[in-house]
Structure formats: C-alpha cells, structure tokens
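Long-time lurker, first post. I've been practising inverse folding by hand and with some scripts of my own, and I keep getting stuck on stretches where the structure tokens seem ambiguous. Below is the full token string for one chain I'm working on. Before anyone asks, I'm not after the true native sequence, just a reasonable design that respects the backbone. If someone could post their per-position residues I'd love to compare against what I wrote down in my notebook.
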C-alpha cells in the first residue's frame, strides 16, 4: 500500500489515462446573426430542479461548449448579446455522456423575449460517433423486470445479448471484457469470478438498486479516448441527486410459486410438474432534497431483498436419481441412511464427532443495499459530488442435483460485501479552460462459509446417482479481498473550433486471494462397498484421492493466500474539431501501461528445466534451419519449404520455453490511436453519417494473473492418486491429512502457471459505421461494427508436446481421425527426477487470431398520444481461439475444445456467438381524469439459442486434458469401423446402432457426418420470449407536492401463460454449453451408453415458465 501511495503521488501530476469514463453531459453550439458568428455572446444554463448554474461566452468563431453538466433536466438556457434579442430554451434534457447541440440565430433587439420550448430529447442531434444508447429513469421504471438487474434494462440495445445469469455480451465478446461504471467508479468484477460480471454476483445480488439510477449510457464503439478499459462494451450509469424540492419514494414487490407458471412442455413431450414453493420480496425507500437551497443537496436510499425456495432434489425427493432403482437390492435412500450410520461410527472410532445432516435447508438469497450522495454547488465555477454505496449479500449454494444428493455440509454460504466511495470535482476556470477530477475506492470482501469442516466423500453407484458429504472441495479455503483505487483528472481547453482534452486516470488494485482446493482432502469411490472396504483398511478400494495444502516452510501460513498489487496507466490526448457546422472530427492517441507490482515466487527446479527445454528446441530449430538451407542450395524448393515450416513451428515452441515462474507480464505501452467523425448531411439533422476506427485496450480478469502468483509449484503442495496406495487410510479429521501425504510424498505433484514474457492485456481494433435518419416520422439507425483481435489470451500446456503420430496412426480402427497425438514431456525419463513431479505447465500467452462483426438496423417512433414503438434486428458473427470462459488456467485449457493441436488451437466460433437477435418493444402511457395514469409495455426478444460444442468425454489425443477433444461425427461406415466397449447394459452392437440413430436424428450432426465438430459451431433452436409490464397510477396534490401511488404487475415470458409450448428457454439460455454423449474409454475404444432417441438438449425448468411479480410504489 505504501508503494502504491508513493507511486500515485508521483503520477498524479502526470497526464495518464487507462479508463476515464463519463458521468456528466454538456451543451455545445454556435451563435450567429445573418450568417455571421457572434463573438462574446453570453450563455447561461440553469438546471431548474436544483438551481445549478453553468455559464460561458462564445469564442471568435461564435462557438460555445459547456461540459461537466448534470445529466437530465429540465434545463433553462438563455443566450444574450447586447443589441440583440435574448433567446430562451426551456425543457431541455441532457443525455449522459452526450452534448446537446444548439444552433442559435440572434435577431436585432425587438424588446421582446423570444422563448423557445424544446421537448427534452436530443434525438439525431446527439454528438455520438459510434454505436451508443442512453436510457433514462422513466424508461428504467417501465421496463419489465423481476431480478432488478442492469441487464434487464440494457437488453433493448441491439448489440447486447443477455444470459440467464444476467451476463451481458457485446457484439460477441466475452462479458469479462466489459466495463461497468457507476458515478465513474468501477463496479464490474475486475477479478473475474462472477457469472454476471458484476460485484456481488456470486451471492446472487445486483450491484446497485435500479431505483437510484438516473441514466444509463451503453457504448460499443465510442471513439472518445476518455472511454476505455474494455474490448467488449461499456456501461456507464449515474445515480440520482437531490434538488431544491424534497422528493422520495417507498416501494416494494413480491412474488411466490403462485406467480410462476404451473407447467410447460418438456423436451420429452411431457408436461412439467408444478413449481416448488418459493417466496421473494424486495422493498426500499429513497429520499432526496436540499440541505442549503441552490447550494447543497442530498440523496439517500435503502433497499432489502430476500428470496427462498426449497431444494428440488432434497432428501427422498422423487425427482432424484437415487429414488427409482436399488443398489444391492435396496433403494438409494436406504443406502444413504446406511452410509450415514457407518460414517458416524467410523469417525467416532477416530475420536471425531461427525454426523452430517441429510436435511437440505431452503436455498436463500439475501441482500441489503444503501447509499448516500451529496452534491455541492461551491459556486458557478466549481461543483463537487461525494457518494457512498453499500451492497451486502449472502446466498446459500451447493445444493443437490438430480444425479447427486448432497448432505447439508456440502452446502456453503457465499458472503459478499461491497462498499463504493466516489468524489468528483467539476471546475470551469475560464471560458477556455475546464477541469474534471474524480477519485473512487471500491472495497470488495467475498468468501465462502461452509456449513461444516470435514473431508469430502463422494460415492457413485447409489441408486442411479451419487452421494456426497463433507466440505465441498473448492469451499474449505476460498476468500477474496479486493481493493480498487481510481484517480481521474481531465483538463479541457477550448480553442476556436477545437476542443482539446488531456486527462489522467490511474487504476490501482490490491488483491488477497485465498484459494486452496481439496484443503480438507477428497475421497472418491465407485460404489458403497468400496467405501466401506477402504474405511475398514482395504486401500485397494479407493478410486481417487486429492489433497492440497500450503507449504508452510515457505508461506508460514497453512491457509496461504496470494497477495499482489496491479495497476493500469496510460497517456492520452484528444482533439474534437468542428471542421464545419455539420462535420465534426474527433481524433486522439493513448498509450496504456499495465502494471504488476509483485513478482511471483521463483521455482529453481522449473526454471532450470525451462532453460534446458529452451536450449533443446533451439538446437532442433537450428538443425531444421540448416536442412532448409541445404535444400535451397540443392534446388529442392519443396523440401526447403517443408524444413522452413518445421523450423518455424519448433522455434515457436522454443520461444514459449523462455519463461520463469518469477516472471511478470509485460509492462510495455499499448498504443491506441482513434479517430471518429459525425457528418450531418442537412441542417435539420435528418440525415447523419457517423463512424470511426480505433484501438481499444482492456484488461484481463485478474484471477488469471492470480493463477500465476499462486501456482509456481512452491507455495502449494498437491497430492493425488487415481488408485489406492498401500498405507493410505480414511482420515476423518480435516486438519490431519498428513499421514496420507507421507504415503503419497513421491507422487506429490507440481502445477505450474507461467506468463509468456511478452504477454499483453486484451486489445482489439474496432471499426464502426453508422447512419441515422428520419423518414416518415420514424427514427432509423443502422450500425455496422467490425472488431479484429490484436491481443487475446491463449493457454498452452507445455508439459505435453506432439509425439509425431496421429490418432489414425495410433489406432487403426480410427483411420479417419487425423488429429495429432501428444506425449508428456515431464516424465522421469525425459525430464529427470526433480522435474518429474511437474504434471502440468499452463502457459498464458497471446494470439492475434479472432474477429467479430455485427450489423444492426433499428426503427423507433414516439407518438404524441403516449405510444413509443421500436424494433431492431442484429446479425453477429464472432470467432476466437480461446473464449476464456473459466477462472482457472487448467480449466481454460481443458475446456477449450479443439480437433487439432490443442497447444495451437484453431480459430473457431466464440462461446458468445449469437447470430440473430430481434427486439420489438411497445410502451403506452395514458393520463386521464386528472388523477389517473395507465402504462402498458410489451417487449419481444427473439434470438438464436446458445452456442454449443460436442466433445468426447476422456482424453483421446493424450494431451493430459479430459474433455477438450471435439467429436469426429462419423458416417455409418465409420461407426462400423469403430471399436466399442460394452457397459451399463449396452452391448457393442447396440451402441453402434443407437449411435447411428442418434446422429441421423440430430439436425446439425446429420448434416456434418464425416467431419469434426467445430467449436461452438451449432446453436440451440431459435427462442421467442415476450415480457409484459403494467402500471396503474393514482396521483393527487397537497400544496406544492404531487403524491403518486402506482400498482405494477410484471410478467416475464408471458407467452407461456397462454401456450405451454411458447417461450421455452434452452437450459443454457445465452451461455455456451457443451455435451459429451460419447465417452472415450481408452485404447481406441468408445462408449455410447444411450438409447437411439437420445437428445442432448433440455429446457430450463425455471425460465421456461411465465414468472410474475406484483409491486406497489409511492412517490412524492
């Protein structure tokens, strides 16, 4: 921390930026008279609700520019000049991050005030250059929502796709690469563990109350250099502020199982069962007003939410696979009871009092949110804002599933606490100089709190399912402390037709990540009999054992956590040039600098081994180079080219071995030039062409960096076995696994994570072209966006390399499969005794392969009688080498499906590729009889289903990863050639016949026989969903206050209410999925243990039903 403060003290006065975001709006324009510029005209803007004043004068070109203004309104703007009439604009509303343009023509003074009333929207006059969207508080209020998430609001953006978890993906990019800011403070999950990409997500909580949000701005390709820190998309939200009048609200909503659809048609054609009991409520209050009129204001909020529902697969549930059949003549539940009695007695013999409960408690999600915001108009030149927000949440996780029943001690509370502090100072020093300073601090404390401390026991063959008890393997030692500090200062100079921006934004992170899997030991068994046998001393009955502990001789702490600091800096300068009244050009240059303040621990054994491999591949590459030269000299060009390819491939491997555990990522500057334009084709702004090109630099989830800090092979000792070892016993004391480690000492393994020495943060080049036009009273918007990957992640396992053969050469029955085979390089024979314990070496590097593009068309029309309509269609294609869907390096390698060289994965479809999306919305509001109002809203979303991959369960190519080999889709003749292993009652011939039937019946697979399944090349079927919002309002006046009561009813997926086959969601619903119906059973044999009518796909039980919510709100 001291190093950080010292470093910041030096950097504060430097012009640096990494991700300056926008929290305000502005007004720009030009004042003329009879076509000539008016120099020195006075512009006075007043935010009417708060009395906040902003002012400036026109320059030599007659132009003016006021920035740093409160978003929203209404504003009153007066333009005056001696000898000329004063023009007044009323009811102006400003959109977040955009400047409203006014074209003012003054006439000679007629002694009359010329007042102009403008309906408060900027429409086609907004100064955006890229694809962007703004959403105000009224639109937020009218959006159908039950989860109260930002994603429910932003889904109207054509380029955004939203998953069931609320993860937002922009134009086919990962949600981990997004930026989410509230009042300029970072609220996205920068560490990268939550499914929705936001703080609090692991506890099932939303980061902020929607009731407190004033405006949201969504950007996909902003060419303003102040907006950065993402290669996906950017969401900026600002919260409400107090005004000169007291305003507040009391609100609440509620739902239970009676507001959830009773049934839907399942994939097998049967109707689903009625949904289990559920209770959910959500209530809160806001209050805002003046502390000193026109000077000091406050806004405060408080909100609580609670959701509870039973575990559908709890003890003796009829839906569990433990129910239907018996084990040794007994049903699964009788076996569970028998196991539990045995556990209690066995633990007691070791002096351990251990009796886990079988009663799964109700699942719950709880959260408390609170906030306070102060706005201070110091004077007309300086405005100050200070805010604090709290999000405290807890969720019970780890419940049973259909196939696995878990005792209560497998469950754990996930506890998340986030505090956010922001301070902002907006200053206008003169007519030509303005400044914006902002500082924020985000404190996140997340941890898993297990119900009990015990070794994990997992037993298969219980009924048709599995039984597990003890502490879940990832939950015994799992906590994250995260502190994020940001400091921003933007200086703006106005010079003629130019607006120059120089800024500083610095981000500093401190992390403490405790993550030790299998901390209490994990024992796995094939069946109950094996469990009893091992517990009674027969070591041969053990299937698998895993245990990891800290190396206390190095760490000094048995619960060692990786602690490290990081930062992101950059330099930028920008010019916004009004070339003409109708053509604006924005161009800038930035250089981002990622920093890592801590060096990972040195592992001499690995470093020495890496150096030897570097030298080894260097010698091989040199030999290929010599052979290529000889072939060229001999005139054998074909052989020379072949040797050159061999040299290149070998040299690439050599360069990867130029790594050390104590090597940090590169801090070389990452340059990002950008240019954007906006061209109004007519003075009325009916036709506008806009676009730009530029480079965007983001960051990676810092959990990927933490992997390399933790896994040097020094701090943690891992022990595992896939078979019983003589001397091993079942140890019930979770903190006394040492006797088993002594037995397994010789097999203790080292997992190594390393950086490529030139590793860079994510970066892409993005090109955008848009056309806005108004025709027949309809606002049309076309956007085309193309992104080319410059730096993205790719994981390799250096412990494995090609062995020179293919699958076809290794297994004659698979002569049609030409993928390469691998062999482990760190065996004792190849690597020596010291390095032979290194089992996997995950190398984090970069790739420039990948691209995405999207084309969208949107139409919108607002009618004076209260009806708002919009419709949009978007086509997207996104391809990548590795989608980075996981938080652990091993998983990012293992689950990056490939049919070629897994250390050189081919370009494939992204896990976020949703080709088609249609959104149609209609909102109607009618006020009547003085006191009443009715609002009705309906949103239709139609989209391609989630992408998926089909792979073999097992390790076909020998690369050490079970489950990353994409399936070869065989023809019937090739199936006849394959070798099958009998199992689960299916003979070899039955499996052949069933597999043929299955492949012939699947739409995608049947069309690609004789080919490899391409990564995420298929999508679930097209989905159609309707969401409905109804609000009935009643208002009355008392003095100067308007009191309003509003009863609301929201229904998501309302189509299911009318037809049980409408609105069904795929089980993935927006998140990539993967299927492994075919098992690789080793030695070239396979198993297809399914009937011929097998269907990989299924519907989500919860989301396929209509879901309603009743709400009541009072405002004044």
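-- Answer (accepted) --
I ran through it position by position. Result:
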């Amino acid at each position: 921390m001291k190093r950080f403060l010292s470093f910041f003290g030096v950097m504060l006065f430097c012009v640096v930026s990494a991700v300056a975001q926008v929290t305000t709006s502005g007004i720009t324009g030009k004042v003329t008279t009879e076509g000539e510029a008016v120099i020195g005209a006075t512009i006075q803007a007043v935010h009417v609700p708060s009395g906040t004043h902003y002012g400036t004068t026109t320059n030599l070109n007659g132009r003016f520019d006021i920035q740093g203004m409160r978003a929203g309104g209404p504003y009153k703007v007066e333009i005056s000049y001696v000898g000329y009439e004063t023009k007044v604009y009323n009811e102006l509303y400003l959109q977040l991050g955009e400047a409203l343009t006014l074209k003012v023509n003054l006439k000679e003074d007629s002694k009359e005030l010329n007042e102009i009333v403008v309906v408060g929207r900027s429409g086609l006059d907004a100064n955006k250059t890229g694809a962007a969207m703004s959403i105000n508080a009224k639109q937020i209020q009218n959006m159908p929502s039950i989860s109260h998430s930002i994603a429910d609001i932003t889904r109207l953006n054509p380029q955004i796709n939203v998953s069931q978890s609320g993860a937002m993906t922009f134009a086919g990019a990962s949600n981990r690469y997004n930026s989410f800011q509230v009042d300029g403070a970072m609220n996205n999950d920068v560490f990268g563990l939550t499914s929705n990409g936001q703080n609090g997500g692991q506890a099932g909580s939303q980061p902020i109350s929607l009731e407190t949000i004033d405006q949201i701005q969504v950007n996909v390709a902003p060419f303003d250099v102040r907006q950065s820190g993402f290669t996906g998309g950017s969401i900026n939200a600002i919260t409400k502020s107090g005004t000169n009048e007291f305003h507040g609200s009391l609100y609440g909503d509620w739902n239970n199982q009676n507001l959830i659809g009773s049934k839907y048609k399942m994939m097998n054609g049967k109707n689903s069962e009625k949904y289990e009991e559920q209770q959910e409520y959500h209530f809160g209050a806001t209050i805002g007003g003046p502390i000193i009129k026109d000077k000091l204001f406050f806004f405060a909020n408080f909100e609580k939410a609670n959701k509870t529902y039973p575990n559908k697969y709890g003890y003796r549930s009829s839906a569990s696979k433990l129910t239907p059949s018996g084990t040794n003549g007994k049903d699964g539940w009788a076996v569970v009871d028998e196991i539990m009695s045995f556990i209690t007695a066995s633990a007691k013999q070791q002096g351990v009092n251990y009796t886990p409960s079988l009663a799964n408690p109700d699942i719950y999600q709880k959260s408390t949110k609170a906030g306070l915001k102060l706005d201070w108009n110091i004077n007309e030149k300086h405005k100050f804002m200070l805010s604090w927000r709290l999000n405290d949440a807890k969720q019970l996780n780890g419940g049973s599933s259909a196939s696995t029943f878990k005792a209560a001690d497998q469950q754990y509370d996930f506890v998340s606490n986030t505090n956010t502090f922001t301070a902002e100072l907006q200053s206008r020093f003169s007519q030509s100089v303005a400044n914006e300073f902002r500082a924020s601090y985000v404190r996140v404390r997340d941890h898993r709190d297990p119900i009990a401390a015990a070794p994990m026991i997992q037993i298969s063959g219980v009924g048709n399912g599995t039984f597990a008890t003890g502490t879940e393997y990832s939950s015994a030692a799992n906590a994250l402390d995260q502190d994020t500090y940001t400091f921003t200062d933007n200086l703006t100079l106005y010079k003629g037709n130019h607006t120059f921006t120089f800024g500083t934004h610095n981000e500093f992170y401190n992390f403490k990540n405790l993550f030790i899997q299998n901390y209490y030991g994990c024992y796995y068994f094939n069946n109950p009999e094996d469990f009893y046998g091992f517990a009674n001393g027969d070591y041969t009955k053990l299937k698998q054992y895993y245990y990891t502990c800290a190396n206390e001789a190095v760490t000094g702490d048995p619960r060692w956590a990786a602690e490290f600091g990081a930062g992101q800096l950059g330099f930028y300068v920008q010019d916004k040039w009004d070339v003409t009244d109708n053509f604006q050009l924005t161009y800038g240059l930035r250089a981002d600098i990622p920093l890592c303040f801590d060096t990972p621990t040195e592992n001499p054994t690995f470093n020495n081994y890496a150096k030897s491999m570097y030298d080894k591949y260097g010698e091989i590459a040199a030999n290929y180079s010599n052979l290529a030269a000889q072939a060229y000299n001999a005139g054998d060009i074909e052989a020379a080219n072949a040797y050159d390819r061999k040299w290149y491939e070998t040299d690439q491997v050599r360069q990867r071995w130029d790594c050390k555990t104590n090597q940090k990522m590169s801090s070389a500057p990452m340059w990002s030039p950008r240019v954007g334009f906006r061209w109004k084709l007519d003075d009325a702004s009916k036709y506008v062409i806009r676009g730009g090109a530029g480079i965007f630099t983001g960051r990676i989830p810092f959990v990927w960096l933490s992997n390399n800090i933790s896994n040097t092979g020094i701090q943690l000792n891992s022990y595992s076995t896939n078979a019983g070892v003589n001397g091993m016993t079942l140890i019930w004391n979770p903190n006394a696994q040492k006797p088993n480690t002594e037995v397994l000492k010789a097999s203790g393994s080292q997992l190594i994570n390393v950086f490529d020495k030139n590793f860079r943060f994510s970066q892409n080049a993005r090109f955008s072209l848009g056309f806005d036009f108004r025709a027949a009273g309809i606002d049309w918007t076309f956007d085309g966006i193309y992104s080319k990957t410059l730096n993205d992640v790719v994981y390799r396992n250096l412990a494995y390399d090609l062995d020179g053969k293919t699958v076809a050469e290794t297994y004659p029955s698979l002569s049609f499969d030409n993928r390469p085979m691998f062999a482990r390089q760190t065996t004792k024979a190849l690597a020596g005794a010291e390095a032979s314990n290194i089992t996997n070496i995950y190398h984090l590097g970069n790739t420039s392969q990948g691209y995405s593009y999207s084309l969208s068309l949107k139409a919108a029309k607002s009618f004076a009688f209260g009806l708002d309509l919009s419709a949009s269609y978007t086509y997207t294609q996104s391809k990548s080498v590795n989608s980075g869907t996981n938080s652990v390096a091993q998983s990012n390698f293992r689950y990056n499906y490939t049919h070629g060289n897994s250390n050189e994965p081919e370009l494939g479809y992204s896990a976020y590729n949703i080709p088609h999306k249609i959104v149609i919305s209609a909102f109607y509001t009618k006020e009547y009889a003085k006191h009443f109002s009715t609002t009705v809203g309906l949103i239709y979303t139609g989209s391609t289903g989630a992408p998926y991959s089909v792979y073999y369960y097992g390790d076909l190519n020998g690369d050490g990863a079970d489950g990353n080999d994409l399936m070869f889709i065989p023809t019937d003749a090739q199936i006849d050639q394959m070798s099958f292993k009998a199992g689960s009652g299916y003979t070899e011939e039955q499996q052949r016949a069933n597999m043929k039937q299955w492949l012939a019946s699947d739409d995608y697979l049947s069309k690609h026989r004789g080919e490899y399944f391409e990564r995420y090349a298929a999508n679930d079927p097209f989905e159609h969903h309707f969401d409905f919002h109804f609000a009935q309002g009643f208002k009355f006046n008392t003095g100067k206050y308007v009191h309003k009561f509003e009863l609301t009813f929201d229904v998501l997926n309302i189509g299911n209410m009318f037809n049980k086959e409408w609105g069904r969601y795929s089980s993935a619903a927006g998140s990539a999925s993967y299927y492994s119906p075919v098992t690789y059973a080793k030695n070239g044999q396979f198993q297809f243990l399914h009937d011929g009518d097998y269907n990989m796909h299924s519907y989500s039980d919860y989301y396929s039903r209509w879901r309603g919510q009743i709400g009541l709100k009072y405002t004044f």
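A couple of notes from the structure itself: Residues 1-20, 117-125 have pLDDT under 50 and may be disordered. The chain has 17 helices and 58 strands. Happy to go over any region you disagree with.
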